[in-house]
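U., I forgot to send this yesterday:
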Amino acid sequence: MTIGERIKVLRKEKKLWMEDFGSVIGMGKSAGSRIENGVNGTTDQTIRSICREFGVNEHWLRTGEGEMFEQTRETVLDKLCAEYDLGAEHRAIVEGFLDLTPQDRDVVLKYFHNVFSRSTSQRPSPQPVSDAEVQQTIESPSYQELCEKKKQAEKESCTTAG
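Result:
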């Protein structure tokens, strides 16, 4: 497969018309078509633009080897959200959890263990979370940031739902 064919595969993967794809990287429809069809080659600048704008693995684009997309936090979260049908609010919660310090994550996990152990008596009872630990987590900057992300996600889902 040529680089032009890989660009076409990428464009179709992104469900973009040639004109839309080209506008993102600053290329006209006819120039993109000539590259995809092997009439023209592509420049290093175009390759870098494609990789930057679409999160493409440059090695894959140039050689066809490896994964099409870079495995960044953003792309991993995109896949997770798509696979488990997670909305903006759910994504904000996952991102917020990942942004917590390891100690704050442990407190959140203990809280969830307490909640789940109340609903299923077969599970072993975890260590209870003290009020002081809960208060410390609520006052932590990472928790406050999580709350802000959740509010923003709720606001965005309300504006897109209507």
